[in-house]
Design goal:
The complex is a heterodimer of chains A (114) and B (115). In chain A, strand 5 and strand 6 form a beta hairpin. Chain A contains no helices and 11 strands. The radius of gyration of chain A is 13 Å and the shape is globular. Chain B contains no helices and 12 strands. In chain B, strands 2, 5, 6, 10, 11 and 12 form a 6-stranded mixed beta sheet that branches. The termini of chain B are far apart. The chains are: A mainly beta (114), B mainly beta (115). The interface between A and B is medium-sized, with 31 and 29 residues.
Chain lengths: 114, 115
């Protein structure tokens, strides 16, 4: 059974804290993605990675960084959390290059920054 | 400009009835894929159906079918015989070959199935 897992379902942090969100996939996918989801805005891409140590900015990278040291793991880092980063964060993975390859999603992390 | 438009923020349907969720897209890439995902209240995104830009026939997966009108750039999702468990957010998404790995999602439609 294919799987994308995220380290936490719910997370509460304080303003200014450094936050790590971890994502692991077991499908040997080349591509991994981090999205944030807010009501009425759908999913917005923060960063994606198409290979180990490679990363590309998405639509809203400000305030975030990522790390991909191993193929199966993609981390999202909030260097100094702010209240406007309270959101649902979704990780996804897919094979590379073919338009028909769907994205597989993790269960999401609901982050609250106080 | 919006690449994926879903004009229905919310929809209601009676159980056992069919419902159509609208999606229009914008691309100049001749090769692209269109996807529909379901997101129940639990939060996980569930892949439903895929349509390729070169596919001659509309995609079908069980109770889900895709009404693909290429010239109109629309890819509407049809759910037949709605069930209470179909109540969820539904997202239309597109992947363009020229943009490689990236998917673009619409804002979603919240479907509520009434008993």
């Amino acid at each position: 059974d294919v799987k994308v897992t995220q380290s936490s379902r719910y997370l509460v942090k304080r303003t200014g804290e450094k936050v790590f969100l971890e994502c692991v996939q077991d499908m040997d996918h080349e591509n991994m993605f981090w999205y944030r989801q807010d009501p009425g805005l759908g999913l917005r891409l923060i960063y994606f990675s198409y290979d180990v140590k490679m990363k590309e900015k998405g639509d809203i990278p400000e305030g975030y960084s990522v790390s991909r040291e191993k193929k199966e793991r993609f981390s999202l880092i909030l260097e100094s959390a702010s209240t406007n980063q309270t959101s649902m964060y979704l990780c996804a993975s897919s094979h590379r290059d073919s338009p028909e390859d769907e994205q597989f999603f993790g269960p999401g992390t609901r982050l609250t920054v106080l | 400009a919006q690449k994926i438009t879903q004009t229905q923020p919310g929809m209601f349907v009676q159980e056992k009835e069919a419902v159509t969720l609208d999606c229009t897209y914008d691309t100049s890439d001749p090769s692209y894929g269109l996807f529909w995902y379901k997101q129940p209240s639990s939060g996980e995104m569930i892949f439903l159906i895929y349509q390729g830009s070169y596919d001659q026939q509309n995609a079908t997966e069980g109770r889900y079918s895709l009404n693909f009108q290429k010239a109109r750039k629309s890819a509407n999702l049809v759910i037949s015989a709605s069930q209470l468990g179909d109540s969820a957010m539904y997202f239309c998404a597109m992947r363009e070959r020229n943009y490689g790995q990236n998917f673009v999602f619409g804002p979603g439609t919240r479907l509520s199935v009434l008993p």
